[in-house]
Specification:
- By secondary structure, this protein is mainly α.
- The protein is built from three helices and two strands.
- It is about 40% helix and about 5% strand.
Length: about 100
């Protein structure tokens, strides 16, 4: 079994901005050790001659053309209809 200390779990939790109880730290210590063991098993597999798979189906991204469409309205006309403006842009309420 891979070795991961409680300090490692606490450090990872701090990096992830998580607050963990002592019970959660112990539980995660075992879970992370199991994950590391599994990754170790995967690392030992012989993948010689296996072609890398980046996508399992034949779908491709379809990008739209980046074209400017003229709707016949100027920036000034649009800004005139906005209830509030700042720095030549429409100001909207903050949404979090």
């Amino acid at each position: 079994m891979a070795s991961i200390s409680k300090d490692d779990v606490v450090y990872l939790a701090r990096l992830s901005n998580l607050s963990l109880t002592d019970d959660e730290v112990e539980s995660l210590q075992g879970d992370l050790a199991n994950i590391l063991d599994y990754v170790g098993q995967l690392s030992s597999l012989n993948t010689e001659g296996v072609e890398p798979t980046y996508q399992v189906n034949d779908l491709e991204n379809v990008d739209r053309l980046d074209e400017v469409i003229d709707y016949g309205v100027t920036r000034e006309e649009l800004l005139a209809t906005a209830p509030e403006q700042k720095d030549n842009q429409i100001k909207v309420p903050k949404v979090i």
